[in-house]
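Section 4.2 – Deliverable D4.2 (structural model, holo form)

The reporting period included a commitment to supply a predicted holo structure for the target in complex with pyridoxal-5'-phosphate. Inputs used:
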Amino acid sequence: MTKGAAPGLLDVLPPTAAHADDGRLTVGGCALADVAAEFGTPALVFDEQGLRERAREYRAAFTALHPGSDVHFASKALPCAPVLRILAEEGVGCDVASAGELAIALAAGFDPAHILLHGNAKSDRDIGDALAAGVGLVVIDNGDDVDRLVRLGASGQPVLVRVNPAVPGQTRAAIDTGSAEAKFGVPLAQAPALLHRVDGLAGLDLVGLHVHIGSQLLDLDGFARAAEAIAALGDFGVYDLGGGLGIPYTPDERAPSVADYAEATVAALHDHLDAAARLIVEPGRSMVGPSGVTLYEAITVKRGARTHVAVNGGMGDNLEPMLYGTRFTAAIVDRDRPPESCDLVGHHCESGDVLVPGVDLATPEVGDLVVLAATGAYCYSLMNNYNGARRPPVVLVRDGEARLAVRREEMADLLARDVL
Ligand code: PLP
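Output (structure tokens):
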């Protein structure tokens, strides 16, 4: 195998992406064209080796700088049990934001002691299921969480308190969670009272603090500022500094490495909090995003005021461009034709259903196989059935083998919950 794709494309494809000796684009040793032929399109394809290597990289980077570190995968980025199982096998823990994500994490095989539950509005079900499962940590976001924990009979439950540090994450508004106006965590000024209350309750074991300032962070300065903001709240044995490391979506986008992120968060802990405390981090996007790609087929090519290349997917399987303005990298697989500026659009009845505007594609033709890079995070979680779209399968590729992890939805799935 030789690396040798169009300049830059390989930089945002999964780590094992390469061109085979016959020139075809492969991931995990499987030609993407073969994967599409076997499993159909659209399909979400994951590089299993890439997932495993990233999990190991995370654990190694943190334990090298701070042996008392725990890496918990933020399952909201990819609540898919077969993939979670791979991460559990690699020894990372899991962060869940609801009873639903907890059920998925348990099915995947995570040790409950290695699961933490957070969320700004936890229901009785969320907290009750977490207590019944014996999760390692519950992150208290507000006084109502405390009421529920007490009412539902928490006994010796280790808890963290999530504080809103009033440190905006330098990212898009929808995924900034650290601003004073954000809905997450107890406001700094109210934190001492909540901590005092939690500390006085026999059923709860207050072990530390939690902050999470945002997602797709390409600048790491916020971690130190968030740590500084909560430093005066007392000395604790555990600090969870959240997730948020961004990833490059285009070849020219630069993101800090996992090592940079480890350095920044460990320095935040050592400089502002307690170098002897346990550190938890909750990466989601950066754990799985780079290892996933989506495969589509071009259904229609319309050349008018713009060239619209419409594929057999769109905002039903990838809401990131519409929700967050994420700019993905797209390419036609195994075709070497002159570039043409196109809008890569979906098949949904909505003008906003644009996957990548103004992208150079190799003079597209109907039937072409299109790959969208770095779709491993938040695409699966945000999939929907808009226009009766059936959610695509998840396929894992590794060492030349492709295996189905989640089957494609069928027509019957669209009606499965209807009471007719
Ligand atoms: N932890 C919490 C509390 C979150 O809300 C999120 C997502 O915003 C994450 C972790 C994961 O963030 P990311 O996927 O950006 O690493």
